[in-house]
Write a structure and sequence with these properties.
Length: 321
């Protein structure tokens, strides 16, 4: 059986009669005369194949079918009335969805704060979060399953096919087991560190950062001895705890407190190896420890007002970071 569509005006007429239980008063409320209203209700009943009102000369009453229908019609009219407001809010990015992927390093501190504060600012925008490495994110973008991603890379090596907003830069620090002999040294000898077995992420995860770490070894005339690869930073730190080797990790990973693991920053090395802010002060030929950037990326030209609102939010937050 083909369903008959009934317009919003007819449903408003039904509610008016149901609440007044009098066609004359309902007609006045609707700013119309009674005969067209009576005809409209009769047409609605024919279309539905259901009697909605019991009518006598003395009274009008809802039938059981009319009583059952009334709450749903009221809800429908309330939603219909809200549609223009919701449409304008969606166009302004105040309503919608952002599918956001992120790497684990941003998830230690900054991302939780951003999600909390963005929900306060735009409570009707749903942030759908998924933790994913850079290579996985690029595959999700290619399939149209992602709106934005927070990715890790070496400076200047963000995915070129995506629009980008830089959200932070941080140095790499050395993670090593607390029981490791080098952990007790007041200053670290870079040559000794580079001789240690290395725990590192696979190159496909962050090629630019992987290459920057290897370049540090090559600049010192060393070939990295990779003891173990692992994808997640937490896993890398746990493997360091297990004694498999040392690891270069972004400074934000130090938020992951693993008993038995210590982190040593650049200033723990001799001045010839430490990354200094005043690069003019770096001794000639001294290697700089690699740094990494985090960027918010998204497909260029993507028309998603909610995403635009989120990008603007992150841009403002990054200015104060």
């Amino acid at each position: 059986m083909k369903e008959t569509l009934i317009d919003v005006r007819a449903w408003r007429q039904f509610v008016a009669v149901a609440e007044e239980l009098h066609f004359g008063r309902a007609a006045i409320r609707l700013h119309m005369t009674q005969p067209p209203l009576t005809q409209a209700i009769a047409q609605m009943e024919r279309s539905l194949g259901v009697v909605l009102f019991d009518r006598t000369r003395r009274r009008v009453a809802l039938t059981p079918a009319g009583e059952a229908l009334l709450p749903d019609v009221r809800d429908f009219l309330e939603r219909a009335q809200a549609l223009p407001v919701r449409a304008r809010a969606a166009a302004a990015g105040e309503v919608g969805r952002v599918r956001l992927a992120f790497v684990s390093t941003i998830g230690f501190e900054r991302l939780p704060e951003w999600v909390r504060d963005f929900r306060v600012l735009c409570p009707q925008v749903a942030l759908e979060l998924v933790e994913a490495t850079g290579d996985v994110q690029r595959a999700l973008f290619a399939r149209g399953e992602l709106d934005a991603g927070l990715v890790l890379h070496s400076p200047g090596a963000a995915p070129p096919e995506l629009a980008r907003l830089a959200v932070g830069e941080e140095p790499l620090v050395l993670a090593l087991a607390e029981r490791h002999p080098l952990a007790q040294a007041p200053r670290l000898d870079l040559a000794q560190v580079l001789a240690e077995p290395l725990v590192i992420f696979p190159r496909r995860i962050v090629p630019s950062l992987h290459d920057a770490i290897f370049a540090l070894y090559h600049a010192a005339g060393r070939v990295p001895v990779v003891a173990q690869e692992a994808i997640q930073m937490q896993t890398i730190v746990n493997l360091v705890w297990g004694g498999l080797g040392v690891a270069w990790v972004p400074e934000s990973v130090t938020q992951f407190r693993r008993e038995g693991v210590v982190y040593r920053a650049a200033d723990a090395f001799g001045s010839a190896a430490a990354k200094v802010k005043n690069k003019a002060a770096k001794p000639a030929g001294a290697p700089l420890l690699p740094v990494c950037e985090t960027s918010l990326v998204w497909p260029a030209g993507l028309n998603n007002p909610a995403l635009a609102r989120f990008v603007d939010f992150v841009r403002e937050r990054s200015k104060t970071a």
